[in-house]
Amino acid sequence: MRPELNLRLSTLKRYAVYDCNGMDIGEPIDIALDSSDEYRAAHIIIGGGFIEELLEELERRDNIDEFFHLSQIKEVLNEEIHLTISENELSKTDSSGNLPENLIRFTEIHRMKVHDEEGNPLGETIDIEFKNGRTYLVIQDFSFNRNMSFSSDYKQRVDFIIPISKMTIKKDEIVAPLKADRRMELVVENLKPKNRGIDAIYI
């Protein structure tokens, strides 16, 4: 059984990845979700650092990314991810950085607009979270937080965290099971007023 990842991608990006021989092979730069399995997180995409990414942007080298399946993680300890495979066994994108058709990068999800079933905007996806074997999207709406701060005692930022399995992901948009006009009610029901900081509500 693989170790569970109970953290966010933004935290995971600070970790180092080691292969089964103890070699440092890079760091997480993205997550690949499997569209054939309710968009669950399936693979971690790794990069070789600033110089390698810069060369790819300048087209001085092919834009090939390496990635591994979550089942190939041996352990996660002290901001290190240790794999059951060697560097030579990592999967690779094509020379343009394209993944297999059933996989989609979180960076692509991040660019999609999020709205409720009635078409009302809910903000954007700012992070992806793994918790208790499930995959969640972290939704933030700057306008909602600003208006809440001006019109109520709740001055903190509030993120809404929703299981990705409950969402509908289309070509360029995400439909979430959260009504825009219900958000303030959820804040009052679940949180205490604060002058600053960040809170989260799981849907």
Describe this structure in words.
- The chain is α+β, with helices and mostly antiparallel strands.
- It folds into two domains: 97 residues, PRC-barrel domain (SH3 type barrels, Roll); 92 residues, SH3 type barrels, CATH 2.30.30.
Average pLDDT level = 88
Tally of discrete structural domains:
2
How many DSSP H or I helices? Answer: 5
What characterizes the major β-sheet? 8 strands, mixed
What proportion of the residues is helical, as a percent range?
A: 10-25%
What global shape is seen?
globular
Using the 3D structure, state the CATH architecture of the largest domain.
Roll
Q: How do the helices and strands follow one another from N- to C-terminus? A: HEEEHEEEEEHEEEHEEEHE
The radius of gyration computed from the alpha-carbon positions, rounded to a whole number of angstroms, is 19 Å
The named CATH superfamily of the largest domain: PRC-barrel domain
Spans of at least 5 consecutive residues whose pLDDT stays below 50 are none
Please give the alpha-carbon distance between the first and last residues: 28 Å
Number of strands: 15
Subunit arrangement of the protein: single chain
Q: Proportion of β residues?
A: 35-45%
Judged by helices, strands and strand pairing, the structural class is alpha+beta
Under the CATH scheme, which class of the largest domain? Mainly Beta
CATH fold description of the largest domain: SH3 type barrels
